[in-house]
Amino acid sequence: MKTLQNIIKNLKIKALTGDADVEISGVEFDSRKIKDGNMFVATRGLAVDGHSYIPMAIEKGAKAIVCEEVPASLSVVSQRLSVIVVENSAEALGLIACQWYNQPSENLILTGVTGTNGKTTTATLLYEIFRKLGYKAGLISTVCNYIDSKPVPTNYTTPDPLELNALLAEMVAAGCQYAFMEVSSHSVEQHRIAGLHFKGAIFTNLTHDHIDYHLTFENYLKAKKRFFDDLPADAFALTNADDRNGMVMLQNTKAAKYTYSLRTAANFKTKILEHDFNGMLLEINGKEVHVQFIGRFNASNLTDIYGAATLLIGRDKLPVSDIELLQIISALHSVSGRFETIRAPQGYTAIVDYAHTPDALQNVISTINDILQNTGGDLITVVGCGGDRDRSKRPVMAREAVDGSAKAILTSDNPRNEDPQEILNDMLAGLDRGQKQRTLVIADRREAIKTACSFAKKGDVVLIAGKGHEDYQIVKGVKHHFDDREEVKTIISY
Fold first, then answer.
1. Based on the domain organization, do 175 and 131 belong to the same domain?
2. What percent of the chain has pLDDT over 90?
């Protein structure tokens, strides 16, 4: 239990009526979860306005309401109800969640990773590095959340403020010193990270994605930049100097500024010396290290990981040498569903990757083709696009797949509530007659994967892109079990 006054102490309050000393038993923004003595925060969503559910929350026993405007019906409500009016209730929810869980981020060294691609790899590998160094750490990511070694299933890249602060509080209780989390553009825009105290931020890259939500690329860019703008002076900001928007992230930040690059002068610089399907030999800041990762995009990810780890080690004066850090990096493995290779007894290689944006797909295809130039063999690509998401990237995804592959098979990803064939038609609209002649369309993803593998001969590569770690497919709004990796392993065992 906490007093209302304690919970709302960090809010910019426009008006407060009722008792500020009333004791609150819990905080909710979903009226269905309200219990007697709770606070209800009425937030505005894309489809639902929480203000409409204020009467329901009161009926279920809410003692306090946080809202942006007071409904007329509240004028007849008992004086025992406390009402707090704020400018932005979504931001207020984040601040309230931090206060309710005793500001857990202040008791952690919290680093956030943002960008279109590479967030999961960067956050996960930093988490693994610090655990290998002997420190307790937490992870909040697209694939799975971890409280030190304890896995916690995840539904979103960045959870809602209450779930997020609850996770951070569990990390503190478990003795974690470090925490690493993916910070999505949605979470910035929706104030899910409001009130969190970050000690570091990493920018990976910015490419075409989420335009269905942000409407313009400029809005998408601003959401990413706002994360850096809000950093405190004692934090570090590490950005990708190879991305055309990388330096934009540093323009208004108060944090200490650092860069990483594969192409230009930077604080953390990497060269690719050798690469094949077994890994790469890199030179990172003048020191050679062999890693079990493939591709320029992974070399970039490993550079920001090395940079962030170096900054954190230096910040906390940890007894870790540069050689020790590089040795740990050399032993790391790719994150689940990120360029995950499966060798077939028939002599071809299947690669499962989460690439679901045009840039990510192009990066993966380019990496595979660079290696195939030396080893021989063809690339066969299976790819689809998600339903109820940005339609504008569908024709671009199809072009990237067809132009970079000997054969391309367009299929379903997560159709969600859309007709799979309509999604495929949007993809086909990006192809000319010649490209269409080199393309197969198989809506059933299982059949598409089987067909691709049946085409593959010794030395070929089958790329299955778009879903990566996901073990489900959403069709007509219903989630069914489906795992690209399981499908491939079943096929090659025949």
1. yes
2. 84
